[in-house]
Design brief:
The structure is a homodimer of 388-residue chains. By secondary structure, chain A is α+β, with helices and mostly antiparallel strands. Chain A has two domains: 202 residues, CV3147-like fold, CATH 3.40.1610; 143 residues, CV3147-like, CATH 2.40.390. Helix content of chain A is 32%, strand content 27%. In chain A, strands 1, 2, 3, 4, 5, 6, 7, 8 and 9 form a nine-stranded mixed β-sheet that branches. The longest helix of chain A has 16 residues. The C terminus of chain A is likely disordered. At the A-B interface, strand 7 and helix 7 of A face strand 7 and helix 7 of B. Strand 7 of chain A pairs antiparallel with strand 7 of chain B, so a sheet runs across the interface.
Chain lengths: 388, 388
């Protein structure tokens, strides 16, 4: 590896965790837990070199790592990163060579940090990129798989020495076995090392810059704690520079109901939010680990792969899906996905149809224009219901 | 390996398959298919050395191999033994050493032969023993696991390059993942290489002599085709010499109903047989891949681990569970299990309680004595219903 790229040190970790939690659309793990584990490891083992995607050697062996399973369970199981190292070592032993760099397979309060947890202990660099540019519930939804990298061989480590190396031709089939392993061998979660690729391939298939993006978003979230307009004003340029599209406050209100269960290894459910003042105006969001869509009455405001993010209304900090509770006051934010997620090839895997929705994909801004609602300054507030 | 032990050649294979199918209690695969594949491989690659368990070097590396999944599906998927070799190679690569000898994990028309299919191609000896002395539906039911050998690391090969290496502390937990793999990655079946052990351990935990026993049983089945009394007269000495107990014809009649489905990777169901002449006298057998028990009315005549075997009434040849059909004329045979299956330690795993039955285990002969039926010469016919 070249020596370029900044060092991620203890204080950066909190920002990456926080920004990762925003990008993760409710998934990707709890940032407080991700921060706590990673800061402790970096204190003990030293900082981690964050390598720009473009600086990666074309011949380097890159391995994607992270936690899989139901976030509601992941949050209960604090990890030392030991399972991640075990998964990486098992995979390396199987493929007969060592990783030169690690990459996150998704954004998230934990999953943006898992590569750092491992890298710090093994003195490896982490690539400034990930495989989703957000979080999604299934492995085949990683851009690595979408653009042709085999997810397997893949190593999974669960509880108490339970582990597997998986070889599957099809990532979607592998994902089904992974879910079963998390349930059977991991009590609901596991650590995965997967998508072995060379540097040249990573440059083609990864969503670039998302660790630095997470750090910048995290810094804004910290700086504008309790100040929604302040935060939202800073988001478009930061997100836009990383290739994301429009940003819009979609709704503000109180959580009326969260119907959620662990099903087939996922958190699955429906969250309903009612507008302040109980005007009857409600937002519904379907959940599969992440928020998949946002319905305001019978208007579909946004769907995967566009990002739907929930903030605490008062602190303006991200709330992960598993922490969403009745009575919370929240602000729902929409962010248009980066281009790697909206090609025809990607939409076939991460578009609304892939989640069983009837609607086709349309970018959020287009949906909002066609909604008949009047959209005000995105930084200010959700639109009034002035449909004629 | 020492050079002792007989050679298994083409003509022996039909007998091993047939006798294995009898011991397998309906499971273990179809003997016609096992014979066909194995004979072809032995013709091409040469005979296989069958090594008495006692002749195995104490330091030899022994690996158990066979097919797993729903027999009803296994029968539809004729194999070349290639998946078995792939599973063995994957396991060897993972553990970093080569197998010195192969062993069957269960008896059966296919599974007694899978070690030979592989051994012939790789010029390895096969141990004259197996891990069940019959067939059972789950891996933790192998005597290897029962007496302390870890089932894992274990390699499974399914369809089209789908494969896994599994490490699980608990064989019962590993079995659950294996079933999921057969469903997800194998279309219902897979080949397994597992239970790596040294020769000294194999001598302690394997059911000795069951390949030669299968061959002898197969020879008797061939010799006494269509002659039930002739066959049954030869069984007690042959089975007794191998440690099995009493032999008894339990019922003769016509298959009234087979309610069977593939469920969780197993064939699961209930077979009902009515006595000839429709006296209302019926035998019911619960199925989980194998026949688990035999109820005559409200009398429990036999349960796992004792063997319940079904023969065609006219040809006196074994009928595998997946081939049992409405209208078939059948003879049901009970055979008391060998001692390794009836210790307290074994009964906890392969006794009636392990299959959810309320009854405790009692050896078949004791159940029959206490049944109030009059039992005639075991070789002649099922007892008359002369209960007072």
């Amino acid at each position: 590896m070249t020596g370029r790229g900044r060092l991620i040190e203890g204080p950066d970790v909190a920002d990456v965790a926080l920004g990762g939690a925003l990008l993760a659309c409710g998934g990707g793990g709890n940032p407080a837990i991700g921060r706590m584990i990673t800061q402790r490891l970096l204190e003990e083992h030293g900082p981690v070199q964050l390598l720009p995607l473009t600086d990666l050697d074309d011949s380097a062996t890159v391995v994607a790592v992270g936690g899989v399973g139901a976030p509601s369970i992941m949050t209960e199981k604090v990890s030392s990163g030991r399972e991640g190292i075990a998964a990486l070592r098992m995979l390396e032993r199987y493929i007969g060579r060592r990783a030169d760099a690690l990459i996150a397979f998704e954004a998230g309060g934990v999953n943006a940090l898992v590569p750092m947890m491992i890298a710090s202990q093994l003195r490896l660099p982490v690539v400034d990129a990930d495989g989703m540019g957000r979080a999604f519930p299934a492995m085949q939804m990683e851009t690595f798989s979408i653009y042709g990298v085999s997810a397997t061989p893949l190593a999974l480590v669960g509880n108490a020495g339970n582990s597997v190396v998986v070889n599957m031709v099809d990532s979607t089939v592998a994902e089904r076995l992974i879910r079963q392993f998390t349930i059977i061998g991991g009590g609901g979660t596991a650590y995965s090392a997967e998508h072995v690729m060379d540097g040249a391939t990573a440059k083609r298939v990864a969503v670039a810059g998302t660790i630095e993006l997470s750090r910048a978003l995290g810094a804004s979230l910290r700086q504008y704690r309790g100040n929604l307009p302040g935060l939202v004003a800073t988001l478009p340029p930061v997100l836009g520079a990383a290739g994301y599209g429009a940003v819009q406050v979609l709704f503000e209100g109180k959580v009326l109901d969260v119907d959620r269960q662990v099903k087939g290894g996922y958190d699955v459910g429906l969250a309903t939010i009612q507008a302040f003042g109980d005007t009857g105006d409600r937002l519904r969001m379907e959940i599969q680990n992440e928020y998949l869509n946002a319905w305001r009455g019978d208007l579909l405001l946004a769907t995967v792969p566009d990002l739907i993010c929930v903030l605490d209304h008062d602190t303006v900090q991200p709330i992960t899906q598993e922490d969403l509770r009745y009575g919370q006051r929240v602000t729902v934010l929409g962010i248009e996905a980066p281009p790697l997620l909206t090609t025809d090839r990607a939409l076939a895997v991460v578009g609304p149809g892939a989640f069983g929705m009837e609607a086709g994909f349309a970018p959020m801004a287009q949906r909002l224009r066609e909604s008949g609602l009047t959209w005000t300054d995105p930084g200010r507030a959700a639109p009034r219901a002035v449909r004629s």
